[in-house]
UniProtKB/TrEMBL annotation:
Record-annotated Protein kinase domain positions: 58-337
Family, per entry: Belongs to the protein kinase superfamily.
First and last residue of the signal peptide: none
Transmembrane segments: none
Organism field: Gossypium laxum
Stored SUPFAM superfamilies: Protein kinase-like (PK-like) (SSF56112)
Domain of life: Eukaryota
PROSITE patterns in UniProt: PROTEIN_KINASE_ATP, PROTEIN_KINASE_DOM, PROTEIN_KINASE_ST
Protein name: Protein kinase domain-containing protein
GO molecular function terms listed in the Swiss-Prot or TrEMBL record: ATP binding; protein serine/threonine kinase activity
Family matches, as InterPro entries: Kinase-like_dom_sf, LRK10/LRL21-25-like, Prot_kinase_dom, Protein_kinase_ATP_BS, Ser/Thr_kinase_AS
Amino acid sequence: GVLIPRTLLGIICLIALVTYKWQRRHLSADEKIEEFLRSQNNLMPIRYSYNEIKRITKGFKDKLGEGGYGSVFKGKLRSNHLVAVKLLGKAKTNGQDFISEVATIGRIHHVNVAKLVGFCVEGSKQALVYDFMPNGSLDKIIFSGEDKITLSWQKTFEIAIGVARGIEYLHRGCDTQILHFDIKPHNILLDENFVPKVSDFGLAKLYSVDDSIVSLTAARGTLGYIAPELVYKNIGGISYKADVYSFGMLLMEMIGKRKNLNEFVEHSSQTYFPSWVYDRFNQGEDIELGDAPLTSTEKTIVTKMIIAAFWCIQMKPTDRPSMSKVLEILDTDIKFLEMPPKPYQLLLESSSRTEDYFTKSTLVDYN
């Protein structure tokens, strides 16, 4: 009769230990966030309670979208100002992603960077409140879909320049160097006038402005936009040039109005868009983009975007320009622009090494 109580006591102790560890882990995460918020008090946007977040979103009624980070809901402040509330999923890293986003975006003020209106943190409940962007994200425009919006090449060019300015500001315009590590169409939001805003700083990292090479414990980014040095350590050190690479891939998709890698195209030569564009462009052939032929002004715009994109996606980080230089390229007369060498990964495209690079090694959405 003594065995059963002992077994029962053992089970109770085990449950108590597991509960204690769970509470300590969550308590330390909460304490970490609260300590950070106290230290940053003067820099912080408005802090909302969870009940206020529920009121702002009318009980999370109007969902705008969702991803690995959680869900986004439309909301309205008492002032009738429209907002987008990003409700974060279960915290995976002791609140580190949340702290990263609040710390990063809370100090940023630029027309091409999403503005953080406020935030909420109550235990495991975390939310970020942004200005609402009526035209959604850039992927709506550049990829086909039912709600596709068609913009002129001039407007597309203006969006590209706006995104470049936003990234340049992150790299050079603050008291710290902010590396985004997840530049892609989904993370570029558009206001009522299609002014682009770089958003989603969950993967961003802050570094000293003097750091030319930075340390990173794990690769971060999204398939199709992640810089090669984040996957292969022998290519070069990690720096702001990783964002430059991602911008180049984004620029390519803005030009092609399609995903860079598409296995369902009519001609196999067009499967990997950057490779097809480089070959045609280098041979002086016209690049057919859309149904209507390009005007001379549109050809100039597209040429600038192509040259800038190929400089950005050079394999070695040292061969890529800074975002300031990218803006210069986009502002220079095409007769003074030089086409860069074919990016090394495109030269290797038919080999197994590159097939590995574009599939196995980057088939992880690190979000």
